[in-house]
Amino acid sequence: MQYDVAVVGATGLVGTKMLEILTEKNFPVRNLYMYASKKSAGKEVEYKGKSYKVIELKKENILDKDIDIALFSAGGDTSLEFAKYFVEIGAVVIDNSSAWRMDKEVPLVVPEVNPEALKDHNGIIANPNCSTIQAMPVLKALSDRYGLERVVYSTYQAVAGAGIQGIMDLQNGLKGEKPKKFQYDIAGNLIPQIDTFLDNGYTKEEMKMVNETRKILSLPELRVTATCVRVPVETSHSESVNVELKSDFDLKEVFELLSNTEGVVVEDDTANLKYPMPLYVAGKDPVYVGRIRRDYSNKNTLNLWIVSDNIRKGAALNAVQIAEKLAEMGLLEGAE
Ligand SMILES: NC(=O)c1ccc[n+]([C@@H]2O[C@H](COP(=O)([O-])OP(=O)(O)OC[C@H]3O[C@@H](n4cnc5c(N)ncnc54)[C@H](OP(=O)(O)O)[C@@H]3O)[C@@H](O)[C@H]2O)c1
């Protein structure tokens, strides 16, 4: 089977990575359409050595095409305005923005964790927030074995999470220039705010982690809290995760369980100073977990350190894996 694919936001950080991952995976692409804003229309974008002209994202440029899958990474407002036209022509939209993640009609999917949710899609599937995605395979394995009581996230999020402009702010900041994307200098600094503040004192990013964790794990009552911090790291989010389980555990068994979890690599050898770090995880597919230890201050509780490439597993890779899973489950129309 081959598929007609649209990449919406093809000139952006996530869009570019999607094209790279489609190439790496040799995804069966028949026709490819690259969309971006008016600003980039007509520019050339490469895929497998061939040049494609960027198409301006507007209704008439969608309705005249035949597209099976539309991979969206062009911001929430763009998704809200244009995804419906792709659905109208029969495409399945896989959306990287937060536009529909909490919509009851829209599956929110990490393919290794809750693929069964894909069966209920109505044309749109949401890719979770990057910092949520990377915790999911680990928490799902712990949830299935021991049950989850409470999760405390503290994140250390890379500037790539804020797109190309975020990376520019770090690189230019290191040369002494003022930031354009972030409100404060990021070079030599930490910013304890990602996205805007809500009335409850949390940021939107923090509440995304709370709500999306509950939805993906189908645990609507799970006690979850989060503090999200932007750090001067280019790529890969890191997070300290404190997990209270419903039953006690044997630490050796936890190591074994996580070592055998799909998409997870245990990197934990403190005697040899081995633990995951963002610089070395960037460019890799799995979720890395280390510093696995008992929290002696609370019963049945674990401390974990989870690191993953936020542009790959946190965005582009997860989206392409959703497309692959849809195809595998027979939920995607294509051409022989
Ligand atoms: N970076 C991450 O870690 C990450 C992770 C998960 C999800 N996401 C989500 O993915 C989306 C893109 O993020 P990014 O990091 O790739 O940002 P980015 O590097 O700034 O790229 C944004 C892309 O969206 C396009 N775009 C913007 N406004 C548009 C419009 N009105 N019509 C059509 N295209 C438009 C841009 O096209 P032009 O070149 O024409 O401006 C560009 O291709 C966002 O929704 C973000 O929340 C990002």
Short description:
This protein is α/β, with parallel strands linked by helices and 336 residues long. The chain has helices at residues 13-24, 59-63, 76-88, 130-133, 136-146, 163-173, 204-216, 251-259, 278-281, 312-328; strands at residues 3-8, 29-36, 44-47, 50-53, 55-56, 69-72, 92-95, 124-126, 148-157, 223-230, 237-245, 264-266, 287-294, 301-308. A hairpin with a 2-residue loop joins strand 3 and strand 4.
Walk me through this protein's architecture.
This protein is α/β, with parallel strands linked by helices and 336 residues long. The protein folds into 2 domains: 140 residues, Rossmann fold (3-Layer(aba) Sandwich), CATH 3.40.50; 144 residues, Dihydrodipicolinate Reductase, domain 2 (2-Layer Sandwich), CATH 3.30.360.10. Helix content is 29%, strand content 24%. The protein is built from 10 helices and 14 strands. The strands form 3 sheets. A 6-stranded parallel β-sheet has the order 5-2-1-6-7-8, sandwiched between helices. Strand 1, helix 1 and strand 2 form a beta-alpha-beta unit. The N and C termini lie close together (5 Å). The model has no long low-confidence stretch (mean pLDDT 98). The site of NADP nicotinamide-adenine-dinucleotide phosphate has 28 residues, from helix 1, helix 3, helix 6 and helix 10. The site of NADP nicotinamide-adenine-dinucleotide phosphate (NAP) has 28 residues, from helix 1, helix 3, helix 6 and helix 10.
